[in-house]
Design a protein that fits this description.
Elements (H helix, E strand, L loop, with lengths): L4 E4 L2 E4 L31 H16 L2 H15 L2 H4 L3 H9 L3 H13 L3 H9 L10 H7 L5 H14 L3 H50 L4 H33 L9
Antiparallel strand pairs: 1-2
């Protein structure tokens, strides 16, 4: 039997020569493409998850004070890893559909205003336009680690009716300047440490050479070495204090904040 030609752009081909078309992928069978089950919530955390859901519902229609209750709950869970587990905040987020980073930002507000009364007073203050600051502004204020600076920024946010974006920008700019200052301070400390180490090394080397030539001649060099070591010892507490101060300025993010 003659093979029928298959129409193509370049002419006719036989059915045997016609290129095969890739078959469309088969649709998954019903029930086979199920989402992965969520990790079981620890028993101690279940009441907190239930309460968090309730608070989030209230916060949808309430003011910033309602959201502050969320921050206190998350802060409590975050600060008790032995009771709730190191991943408790992330697990809460999974339960209520929020990321761990968002919940940590909520908890940061609880770090800044330690009780509901103090926060309610802050949240009740009004701007020059007669409105209260939205919750997003308090989230932005909480990113400022220095308490005095944060209070001043809060006053300015009220006076100038600043948006959350403006507050975040202000905090970010301040952190960038502090980071530059920290980098310069660290460089100065490294230079100081290197200079002290070099002086001590030179003095020890000189004492070693003098002792090899004439034992008695090494005594002045040894005394000089002791003086250098004493200077190093005196410098260490000051350097440690500076480093601790720098650590406070920089601040350390919570290990789960980037989850």
């Amino acid at each position: 039997m003659d093979e029928k030609p298959v129409a193509t752009r370049r002419g006719a081909r036989t059915a045997k020569e016609a290129p095969l078309r890739s078959a469309a992928p088969a649709a998954p069978k019903p029930g086979t493409d199920k989402p992965k089950p969520k990790e079981a919530l620890p028993a101690a955390l279940r009441p907190k998850a239930t309460k968090l859901r309730e608070l989030l519902v209230e916060a949808e229609t309430g003011d910033s004070s309602a959201r502050f209750e969320v921050s206190l709950l998350v802060k409590e869970v975050r600060d008790a890893p032995n009771m709730y587990g190191k991943k408790a905040v992330a697990q809460l987020g999974t339960e209520v559909g929020l990321g761990a980073a968002t919940l940590y930002k909520y908890a940061a507000v609880g770090d800044c205003w330690t009780d509901a009364k103090a926060f309610r007073e802050a949240a009740a203050q009004r701007t020059k336009r007669g409105r209260t600051l939205p919750w997003a502004v308090f989230l932005a204020l909480a990113q400022e680690p220095d308490g005095r600076t944060r209070r001043g920024l809060h006053v300015r946010a009220l006076a100038d009716d600043l948006s959350a974006g403006s507050v975040r920008s202000d905090v970010a700019s301040r952190k960038a300047r502090k980071a530059a200052s920290v980098a310069a301070s660290m460089a100065a400390l490294r230079r100081q440490a290197a200079a002290l180490a070099e002086n001590v090394g030179k003095t020890v080397s000189q004492a070693t050479r003098d002792a090899g030539e004439v034992p008695g001649k090494a005594l002045p060099a040894i005394r000089a070495c002791i003086v250098q070591l004493a200077r190093v010892s005196e410098a260490i507490p000051g350097a440690v204090e500076k480093l601790e101060a720098l650590a406070q300025v920089v601040g350390a993010p919570h290990p789960e904040e980037s989850d």
